[in-house]
């Protein structure tokens, strides 16, 4: 099922990102998110997954071919690896009605199939739980979605303390990693010779951890040292690949932010937003998507906070969130039983069938 097909079964769609948060600018991209319910026939497709994005497969292959023409073989391998992963998914015998997300190739538009959406929302995924609380930029809303939104209290729980702060920490790590690239970029792809290694490994990778775990009397002299060098070389190579990928794929707008402020302030504003939303959820039980602090957040995006202040704010928040977590009156975990019941009732109404449980 491609994006256009899924869109025919859409029950909710909105303009996401900075538009939903209220700090968009005239230059802000328009990213769309939504939820759809797959047609019942998709539940009976045995040998081909319903939701593989064929457009992404073609895109990875075309990009890899272009990379090879430009003799950028590292990038070509990366894109071919991504294509192989997509093909592997397509080859799986998929009996699951909802296997994931459908996206529109070339655009930042996504639709979540309802079953997956419910699972992610129950896990208090920050990018998903906000769907229930969007107030601006709604493009389409089916009565089914209105019923789902009326039951959003079933999903929200104290897990938000960990999911929102976890996403914030991920933003911080991304900022720090990219700042490292800016201040001290790798200048070449590491070679095995630099690590005192021969052209080909003498110790199979699958045996390396096992050899490190046994007593020294069972390992030939020099083997442990060689394994440590192999590991160091792989780490350096991973760092180089990550840097090379970042350099090739950097968004021009992000480059400008990094040039002006020394770090990606767009990542920074989302870090602050996520932390503040976590505090609000634990304190009030509400998810404020359209931000009351939108003006301040936009200022942060535009460089109002230096890098040092941002890091200090993020690193000092964990203790405060833990205190709010202990005091919060939110449910400890989502009401899985009622969520499942809601899902069954929605499917019964949508498909015009009665879903009966086996008698216990």
List its traits.
16 helices, globular, alpha+beta, Beta Polymerase, domain 2, 360 residues, 5-stranded mixed sheet, 5 strands
What does this structure look like?
This protein has three domains: 1-41 and 101-156 and 332-360, Beta Polymerase, domain 2 (2-Layer Sandwich), CATH 3.30.460; 51-93; 161-327, no CATH class. 55% of the residues lie in helices and 6% in strands. It has helices at residues 3-7, 18-21, 54-69, 73-91, 114-122, 126-129, 143-150, 160-183, 205-213, 223-249, 252-261, 265-284, 294-301, 307-315, 318-327, 336-351, and strands spanning 10-15, 32-36, 101-103, 109-113, 138-141. Strands 3-4-2-1-5 form a five-stranded mixed sheet.
Topology:
Elements: H1 3-7, E1 10-15, H2 18-21, E2 32-36, H3 54-69, H4 73-91, E3 101-103, E4 109-113, H5 114-122, H6 126-129, E5 138-141, H7 143-150, H8 160-183, H9 205-213, H10 223-249, H11 252-261, H12 265-284, H13 294-301, H14 307-315, H15 318-327, H16 336-351
Parallel strand pairs: 2-4
Antiparallel strand pairs: 1-2, 1-5, 3-4
């Amino acid at each position: 099922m491609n994006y256009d097909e899924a869109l025919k079964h859409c029950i909710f769609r909105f303009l996401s990102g900075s538009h939903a948060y209220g700090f968009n600018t005239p230059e802000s991209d328009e990213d769309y998110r939504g939820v759809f319910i797959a047609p019942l026939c998709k539940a009976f497709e045995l040998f081909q997954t319903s939701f593989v994005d064929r457009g992404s497969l073609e895109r990875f292959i075309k990009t890899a071919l272009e990379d090879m023409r430009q003799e950028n073989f590292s990038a070509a391998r990366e894109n071919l690896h991504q294509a192989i992963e997509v093909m592997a998914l397509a080859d799986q015998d998929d009996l699951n009605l909802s296997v994931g997300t459908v996206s529109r190739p070339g655009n930042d538009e996504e639709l979540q199939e309802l079953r997956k959406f419910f699972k992610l929302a129950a896990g208090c995924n920050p990018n998903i739980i906000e769907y229930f609380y969007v107030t601006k930029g709604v493009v389409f809303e089916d009565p089914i979605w209105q019923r789902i939104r009326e039951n959003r209290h079933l999903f929200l729980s104290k897990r938000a303390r960990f999911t929102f702060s976890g996403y914030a920490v991920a933003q911080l790590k991304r900022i720090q990693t990219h700042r490292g690239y800016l201040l001290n970029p790798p200048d070449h792809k590491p070679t095995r010779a630099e690590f005192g290694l021969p052209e080909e490994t003498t110790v199979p990778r699958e045996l390396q951890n096992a050899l490190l775990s046994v007593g020294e009397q069972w390992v030939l002299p020099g083997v442990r040292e060689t394994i440590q060098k192999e590991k160091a070389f792989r780490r350096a190579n991973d760092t180089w690949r990550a840097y090379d990928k970042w350099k090739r794929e950097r968004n021009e707008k992000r480059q400008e932010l990094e040039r002006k402020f020394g770090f990606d302030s767009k990542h920074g504003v989302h870090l602050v937003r996520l932390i503040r939303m976590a505090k609000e959820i634990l304190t009030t039980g509400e998810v404020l998507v359209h931000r009351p602090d939108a003006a301040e957040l936009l200022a942060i995006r535009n460089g109002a906070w230096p890098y040092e202040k941002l890091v200090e704010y993020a690193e000092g928040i964990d203790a405060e969130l833990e205190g709010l977590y202990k005091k919060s009156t939110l449910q400890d975990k989502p009401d899985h039983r009622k969520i499942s019941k809601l899902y069954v009732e929605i499917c019964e109404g949508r498909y015009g069938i009665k879903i009966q449980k086996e008698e216990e």
